[in-house]
Automatic annotation (TrEMBL):
Keywords: ATP-binding, FAD, Flavoprotein, FMN, Kinase, Multifunctional enzyme, Nucleotide-binding, Nucleotidyltransferase, Transferase. Transmembrane segments: none annotated. CDD domains: FAD_synthetase_N. It comes from Allomeiothermus silvanus (strain ATCC 700542 / DSM 9946 / NBRC 106475 / NCIMB 13440 / VI-R2) (Thermus silvanus). Its EC number is 2.7.1.26, 2.7.7.2. This is Riboflavin biosynthesis protein. NCBIfam families: cyt_tran_rel, PRK05627.1-5, ribF.
Length: 296
């Protein structure tokens, strides 16, 4: 997959172009992109996905996002997209007129365009589907529905805010995941008998709160585990922490990249009166997570 950040860097030649923020690359996005890929193949053209980082709504409204740049790039590659144009969405981009955007599409030699039915573009969201039609025949895909309502990034964000990772899985077509770098914590975990890798994720990434059964992928291998995302009221923690204990792992993870898939919520975080009680609860959490993972 060719990854570019500026339309001017696209290789010449006719293309099918799919446009959108595609935050989460959820089932609706996958449906749209698969159709665009099929069409591109039939026309013997590459598919170029024109997307934004961060997603436009994240920049405009300060919402959290579901997939960071690395995750989105990886998912586009897995889908078989040939060219990913990921444009930084900043103040300058937000101020661009709809005409500028249409000019980009002409420059890209778009021969067919794919968008979702709610797509708008250009300063003040002035541009719409009729404008796209002036560049190339445009396929407008209705929002895919699952469990009687449209699959949308905002629906997934709302579910995650409630910690409902199991309900999110069918909407994404995969478990919700977060990736980050393992940083140092307070070195308390090891004294509890449960060392936990502290993950630093991209600011703005939506994180579900609570204790979860997880699968963690690291350069050293894939492990089952148990994660806590919260403020650690028992030790008077103030900042939000994302910690993962890996089962059957020993070693050093500091500085490593880790991807954590949230498979099942076990409970909400709570305040314990002693560290012994917290430790006993973590033991039960780990037991429950192991049981869950072993029957997958
Ligand atoms: C599975 C799991 C569940 C946890 N649940 C809670 C909890 O309910 N309340 C809480 O205050 N801290 C909870 N913690 C956080 C611990 O307080 C934390 O892991 C410990 O303080 C070690 O921190 P450190 O890695 O910064 O040394 C949990 C941690 C894990 C791994
Ligand atoms: N099974 C394990 N799960 C998670 N981290 C582990 C494990 N075994 C060893 N580690 C290492 O120990 C560190 C966590 O130990 P901990 O005492 O909780 O320290 P910190 O407070 O720095 O996170 C991890 O970052 C990792 O490098």
């Amino acid at each position: 997959m060719l990854l570019i950040n500026d339309p001017a860097d696209a290789p010449p030649g006719p293309k099918v172009v799919a446009i959108g923020s595609f935050d989460g690359l959820h089932l609706g996005h996958q449906h749209l992109l698969r159709q665009a890929l099929r069409e591109a193949k039939a026309l013997h053209m590459p598919l170029l996905v024109y997307t934004f980082d961060p997603p436009s709504k994240v920049f405009m409204k300060g919402e959290g996002f579901l997939t960071d740049l690395t995750e989105k790039t990886e998912l586009l590659r897995e889908l078989g997209v040939e060219i990913a144009l990921i444009v930084p969405f900043n103040e300058t981009f937000a101020q661009r007129s709809k005409e500028d955007f249409l000019q980009d599409l002409r420059g890209l030699e778009a021969k067919e365009i794919y968008v979702g039915e709610d797509f708008r573009f250009g300063k003040g969201r002035a541009g719409g589907l009729e404008d796209l039609q002036s560049v190339a025949p445009t396929k407008i895909l209705p929002l895919l529905e699952l469990f009687e309502s449209p699959v949308k990034s905002s629906r997934i964000r709302d579910l995650l805010r409630e910690g409902k990772v199991e309900e999110v899985q069918p909407l994404l077509g995969r478990p919700y995941a977060a990736r980050g770098i393992v940083v140092e914590g307070d070195k308390r975990g090891r004294t509890l008998g449960y060392p936990t890798a502290n993950l630093e994720v991209a600011p703005g990434k939506v994180l579900p709160l609570g204790v979860f059964a997880v699968r963690a992928r690291t350069a050293q291998g894939t492990y089952g585990g148990v994660a806590n995302i919260g403020h650690r009221p028992t030790v008077d923690g103030h900042t939000l922490r994302f910690e993962v204990h890996l089962f059957d792992f020993r070693g050093d993870l500091y500085g490593e990249d880790m991807k954590v898939e949230f498979l099942k919520k076990i409970r909400d975080e709570k305040k314990f009166s002693t560290l012994e009680e917290l430790k006993a609860q973590i033991e039960r959490d780990a037991e429950e997570a192991r049981r869950y993972l072993s029957q997958l």
